[in-house]
Amino acid sequence: MPYIIVTSRSPYSYDRVRGKINKRMNIGGVAIVLNDLISREGGTWVCWGDGTADHEFQEEDNGKFRISRILLTIQERRGFYDEYSNSTLWPLFHYFREKIQHDQKYFKIYQKVNELFAAAIEKSIRNKDEVIWIHDYQLSLVPGFLKEKGVTNPIIFTWHIPWVSDEFYSILPERELLLKSISSADSITFHTKEYRTNFRDSYEKIIGDPKSVDRKLHYYPLGIDYKAYEDIERFRKIPLAMQNTKIIFSIDRLDYTKGLIARVKAIESLLRNNPELSQKFMYLMIVTPSRTNVGQYMDLKNELEMNIGRINGEYGRIGWYPITYIYRKVSQKTLINYYKWADIALITPLIDGLNLVCKEFIAASNKGLLILSEFAGSAEDLNGAVKVNPNSIENLSSTLFSALSMPESEIMDRLNSLKEKVRRRDIQWWARKVTETIKRKESNVRNAGN
Ligand code: GDG
After folding, report:
1. For FRET with 361, which of 212, 231, 247, 398 sits at 20 to 30 Å CA-CA?
2. Residues with beta carbon inside 6 Å of ligand 1?
3. Nearest to residue 6, comparing CAs of 128, 199, 142, 160?
4. Which of the pair, 308 or 296, is modelled with greater confidence?
5. How many angstroms separate the CA atoms of 368 and 91, rounded?
């Protein structure tokens, strides 16, 4: 069954570097599975062409599937991506009230860009069986525009971030428009039961009786490509300097939702309360640059780095610092090595739609303990993790203290039960479940007709 996959990011982009064309892959987990699916089944991928040479490849046929790239002006990019998507919707859907910025002119641009996506989708349709699968908060108005255009192909809408409570959602001036558009899809999927319930409550409060949407709402937690993390061709040995200390590890995009400041303060509190732990562990903290055009993100970087500097200055010794901080993207192979080296993965977002990092760590590790925020979507089904409240520095620090002395047998029992779960509910499982929501619906209709 062919698909029309619709994402804001492209599966790969083209850049022109010193006169030559460079192909840049988008290596995210979701992109990989969607790539597999569409390569197998065929169809078109509609996305934003953000590469500097993408205009030369606006409509591309790569032999497996077609790509239709939407080209945006600088103003459109700003209004659609930096402003309405990432300065209005992102903080709203993560309960950061004080960070929500709203300007009607940026909403208009978001609306226009969503309409451009809908027009490109309509043009791409080859037959009416093609399933249109739209992803995430940047594209919430696309289903509504497609219905207005009279498109009858089945539409799946997958929401990757939290859906907030109905009271909080009501803050959004365009609350009705977004809800109506998303609800016009034939199937709507979330990562957790709570987000599904919140969406239903929002619908009931703002639109009315939710009966008509009930049957469309599903929740399936996104999985990972388990094997890709489990197997690694050449595993690098832990460097000598790190061999006699416990390694605490994390990797996050630089984002205020990820709880980075509280986490480094917990390291400070751990050392203040337990000076004997000096030189007994190191915290390897990788932070990946993200949304660098949004001012709030750069303020966060400064605050984080000031805290790390203070803590390392106060507790460091010659040849040892509590926090090894790296602010750059690392290769996939290096990341898997870090997962394998880590004794503890410290994944403590203040809130997260799901969080893939904790699942990747579970797949890669042969010895590690997962400390996981109770506010990450993945906490709902990862029972073997040690759960923490990321808002409490005391809770974070005392959990770290017990984790550092947890018996190996308990760590392995937890890890093995987590591995079982993450292996079973991998990315293929997720894609199958989500696409089946449409097949089930179609067979229900057929059954009803029989
Ligand atoms: C959003 C939602 C939801 C990061 N830095 C590097 C790197 N990464 C990879 C990780 C992981 C992915 O990026 C991050 O995924 P998360 O799920 O942890 O977080 P978000 O980026 O906020 O994703 C989230 C997700 O969408 C999917 O629905 O789970 O809740 O916020 O795969 O490994 N990979 C490499 N180098 C890096 O420096 N190789």
Report:
1. 398
2. 28-30, 160-161, 222, 251, 253, 288, 329-330, 332, 335, 352-357, 360
3. 142
4. 308
5. 32
Cβ–Cβ < 8 Å for 223, 429? yes
Share of the chain above pLDDT 90, in %: 85
Q: What is the pLDDT of residues 361-380, one digit of tens each?
A: 999 999 999 999 999 999 99
Asked if 24 contacts 54 with a C-beta cutoff of 8 angstroms, the reply is no
The pLDDT assigned to 235 comes to 76
Distance of CA 356 from the midpoint of ligand 1 (Å): 6
Return the H-helix or E-strand segment holding 49: none
Whether the CB-CB separation of 357 and 259 falls below 8 Å is answered with no
- The DSSP H or E segment spanning 285 is strand 281-288
Q: Give the C-alpha separation, 164 to 137, whole Å.
A: 13
Handedness of CA 334, 335, 336, 342 (dihedral sign): positive
Q: Are 32 and 225 in contact (CB under 8 A)?
A: yes
- Tokens representing 332 are 């996939």
Q: DSSP character for 53?
A: T
Q: At 60, which helix (H) or strand (E)?
A: strand 59-61
Q: What is the 3-state secondary structure (H, E, C) of 405-437?
A: CCCHHHHHHHHHHHHHHHHHCCHHHHHHHHHHH
Q: Are strands 12-17 and 20-25 parallel, antiparallel or unpaired?
A: antiparallel
Ligand 1 geometric centre to CA of 123 (Å): 31
Q: 336 C-alpha vs ligand 1 centroid, how far in Å?
A: 14
Cα separation, 134 vs 138, in Å, equals 10
pLDDT at position 307 over 70: yes
> What residue ranges define each of the domains in the chain, with the CATH number in brackets?
3-223+428-449 (3.40.50.2000), 231-424 (3.40.50.2000)
Query: What is the average pLDDT across 173-197?
Result: 98
- Per-residue pLDDT at 449 exceeds 60: no
Q: Residue with structure tokens 């990321």?
A: 390
User: pLDDT tens, 210-263?
Assistant: 999 999 999 999 999 898 898 776 678 888 888 889 999 999 999 999 999 999
278/227: higher pLDDT: 278
Rounded Cα distance, 320 and 399, in Å = 23
